[in-house]
């Protein structure tokens, strides 16, 4: 029988026997061997894929049943070589287990996070019920999911685990909230300087006026990514991609800090 389906955003087709399992079609006919066969009896979850937005065990379906379906396998999880936040969590929190169970866990947990972006630990464990590991444990997998949840829900898309990152998130909270007076009073010293290549502003009154004008002109909607973040006890610097009412902009900032407040701030657009 002839089947056609979309897999990882690309069209695929082939001729299969009616009894062929979907997992065998993916692995043997299409060479997508990231999806594993661990038991062949529907218990282990190694063969989990996303089918029309829902995780399914591909050893429990025939290939012909997937006719016309939109499928994602582990090969399609990372876009353009960039790991998803969940995959990054596996990396950062040592959630990686063996090559058999990990792909299926990633797919099941992708489904969980799509439907529940802030799962509790109990909900994460329930989400993993269909994925069996025969040899290690689940503890670091839970931590990987918690990493992904924390990062996805952070205003600045970071794990906030240092004073510099906490400072940066606070700064962005004021900017997104459009509150120039509180921003200056809470984050800047009385005689702080904010500068760019062609202007310099000093002191609370001037800074409030500066940020008031800036926020009238530019409304920050979201920090899309934060890169090259470095901090010392007295400084924070980074590049960031931000979405504003004027489009996507790439910016960089350097903050010199004294007692947790800004004494000097250089800012620029790339
Ligand atoms: S191979 Fe499909 S559940 Fe084990
Ligand atoms: S089955 Fe993969 S680490 Fe246990």
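^ Assign residues to that structure.
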């Amino acid at each position: 029988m002839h089947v056609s389906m979309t897999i990882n955003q690309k069209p695929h087709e082939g001729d299969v026997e009616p009894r062929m399992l979907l997992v065998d079609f993916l692995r043997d006919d299409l060479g997508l061997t990231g999806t594993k066969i661990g038991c062949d009896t529907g218990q282990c979850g190694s063969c989990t894929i996303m089918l029309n937005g829902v995780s399914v065990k591909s050893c429990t379906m025939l290939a012909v049943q997937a006719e016309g379906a939109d499928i994602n396998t582990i090969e399609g999880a990372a876009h353009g070589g960039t790991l998803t936040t969940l995959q990054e969590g596996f990396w950062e929190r040592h959630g990686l287990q063996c090559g058999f169970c990990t792909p299926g866990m990633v797919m099941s947990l992708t489904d969980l996070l799509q439907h529940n972006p802030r799962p509790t630990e109990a909900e994460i464990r329930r989400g993993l019920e269909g994925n069996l590991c025969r040899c290690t444990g689940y503890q670091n997998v839970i931590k990987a999911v918690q990493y992904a949840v924390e990062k996805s829900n952070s205003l600045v898309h970071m794990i906030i685990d240092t004073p510099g990152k906490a400072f940066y998130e606070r700064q962005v909270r004021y900017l997104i909230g459009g509150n120039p007076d509180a921003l200056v009073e809470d984050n800047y010293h009385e005689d702080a300087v904010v500068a760019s290549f062609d202007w310099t502003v000093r002191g609370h009154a001037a800074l409030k006026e500066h940020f008031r004008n800036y926020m009238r002109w530019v409304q920050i909607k979201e920090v899309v990514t934060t890169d090259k973040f470095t901090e010392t006890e007295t400084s924070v610097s980074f590049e960031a991609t931000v979405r504003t009412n004027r489009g996507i902009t790439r910016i960089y900032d350097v903050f010199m800090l004294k007692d947790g407040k800004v004494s000097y701030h250089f800012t620029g657009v790339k």
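The radius of gyration is 24 Å.
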